[in-house]
Write a structure and sequence with these properties.
elongated, 4-stranded antiparallel sheet, 6-stranded antiparallel sheet, BTB domain-containing protein, cytoplasm, alpha+beta
Length: 520
């Protein structure tokens, strides 16, 4: 048969040419063979009439897929299935490769020896297939058809699988073609896992990665945990860390399960204020109460939140944020509210049942510099702040100080730390907290509630006001201290200067605040 450059032309003339060839062959054949040919032609016509009908439009999947639908996609969605209408007779001659011949058999009654009833209710779709092809591509199908308890049924019901997803699976097994889109990716991932086709799984996960955004990060995180996809889950968490506010505001946030909420609230790297986390948790609790058919009372909100409530770091809020929100929510008990107010206002601070460790929304390796070369004993405190001015050559984020502790053995200190913009006298960050020391000459970490941005070549003042017994102090101080990254070789240079006024004696040469802890 002569090939034509236009596909449409080929389709128009294919049947007439084959008819003419059959007629010529028929006229040249003995009468006994003609009867056989007539029977073959009749059988071929019957088979052609039994070819598969077009697949129905693929149904929309759950809300998880709807969230992905807004994303631009480079992969065509499997919204329609190509149905081959070529004559059954001698179709093999029109396919020059094994791949073309197998692709022709996809969703085709020709040579099919099994049918799947996919879906449930009114959405059930009858899909033809070929046991050999399925067994070659899937260990699950191989066991189904050839294992010790192989089925002999020619019709197999799959009520838990979406027809669109099953067709996408078969398309891949028959032709290596990937046809997934926002509407089908999650159900296709489920189907690929069910039938142990890891190559298609990988394509689905890659599709999800490319379409990961802040507004669908929580939904995809839930699915990644459900389908045991740790790499995708890790990418979702990183996205939530970087875009915490937008992710919490997304509509899909309130649809996540409790375990996913707990996994997020446990993280130290969320980039949002704690009062916003509390507000998001309350929104989730209202939605969860509705799912459990409970009234959204404060008691029921606390009940559905469970462990998640203890992961809200109320001590990191300002007293104003706490008083305006959590204190009035009735979700916390009276005892919890009182203890938190005492934590904000008195020293020594009472123990609270909530985490007071700061969240740091910065990635990378923590760095620190020490400005003293030697440690001595007996530095006293009388309510005056130890202060030292500093500047750096590049943008960094200071997350805390290292301070000296008692010379009299294990002791608790109350301390207020601050970073002040020197020229404007603006407090950029502070924390009123405490620390415990063991009596050694080591430094002890005291952290800010949030990272403090430090710009290059700008003067800042580091302050620490300690309440406690005499401590160690540093001597042989250095005016310039440089930190060099072991991985990139980047140098961060600190320059220290005397802070005029009340400084409790701390200077470049000796005193307190020996260590600065930061991220680049």
């Amino acid at each position: 048969m002569t090939k034509h450059c236009c596909e449409s032309e080929q389709q128009l003339i294919t049947v007439p040419i084959q008819s003419i060839m059959c007629l010529l062959f028929y006229n040249l054949t003995p009468p006994t063979a003609q009867n056989s040919l007539q029977q073959s032609a009749a059988a071929g016509a019957a088979a052609a009439g039994a070819m598969a009908t077009p697949a129905s439009n693929m149904a929309s999947t759950a809300a998880s897929n709807a969230s992905l639908a807004a994303a631009p996609t480079a992969t065509p969605a499997a919204a329609s299935v190509l149905v081959y209408r070529e004559p059954v007779y001698n179709w093999q001659a029109t396919k020059s490769t094994v791949k073309e011949r197998f692709a022709f058999l996809f969703n085709n009654e020709v040579l099919s020896d099994v049918h799947f009833l996919v879906g449930k209710g009114m959405g059930v779709q009858r899909i033809p297939a070929h046991r050999f092809v399925l067994a070659v591509g899937s260990a699950v199908f191989d066991a189904m058809f050839n294992g010790g308890m192989a089925t002999t049924s020619t019709e197999i019901e799959l009520p838990d699988v979406e027809p669109a997803a099953f067709l996408a699976l078969l398309k891949f097994l028959y032709s290596d073609e990937v046809q997934i889109g926002p509407e089908t990716v999650m159900t296709t991932l489920y189907t690929a896992k069910k039938y142990a086709v890891p190559a298609l799984e990988a394509h689905c996960v890659e599709f999800l990665k490319k379409n990961l955004r802040a507004d669908n990060a929580f939904m995809l995180l839930t699915q990644a945990r459900l389908f045991d996809e740790p790499q995708l889950a890790s990418l979702c968490l990183e996205n939530i860390d970087k875009n915490t506010g937008d992710a919490l505001a997304a509509e899909g946030f309130t649809d996540i399960d409790l375990d996913t909420l707990v996994a997020v609230l446990e993280r130290d790297t969320l980039g949002v204020r704690e009062v916003r986390l509390f507000g998001a948790a309350v929104r989730w609790a209202e939605a969860e109460a509705h799912r459990q058919q409970l009234q959204p009372t404060p008691e029921n909100k606390r009940k559905v939140l469970g462990k998640a409530l203890t992961l809200i770091r109320f001590p990191l809020m300002t007293i104003e944020e706490f008083a305006a929100g959590p204190a009035q929510s009735s979700i916390l008990t009276d005892r919890e509210v009182v203890s938190l107010f005492l934590h904000f206002t008195v020293n020594p601070k009472p123990r609270v049942d909530f985490i007071d460790r700061p969240r740091c929304c910065l990635r990378g390796k923590e760095c620190s510099i020490t400005r003293f070369g030697q440690v001595e004993s007996r530095w006293g405190y009388s309510g005056t702040s130890d202060r030292i001015r500093f500047s750096v050559n590049r943008r960094i984020f200071v997350v805390g100080f290292g301070l000296y502790g008692s010379i009299h053995g294990p002791t608790d200190y109350q301390v207020n730390i601050q970073i002040i913009h020197t020229d404007s006298n603006t407090v950029l960050g502070q924390n009123d907290t405490g620390f415990s020391c063991d009596g050694s000459a080591n430094t002890f970490r005291v952290m800010f509630k949030e990272p403090v941005e430090i710009l290059p070549n700008v003067n800042y003042t580091a302050c620490a006001t300690l309440k406690g017994p005499d401590s160690h102090y540093g001597t042989k101080g250095m005016r310039k201290v440089t930190h060099e990254s072991s991985s990139t070789g980047t140098k961060t240079c600190f320059t220290f200067c005397y802070a005029a006024g009340n400084n409790n004696g701390t200077s470049v040469e000796d005193g307190q605040i020996p260590e600065v802890i930061f991220y680049t």
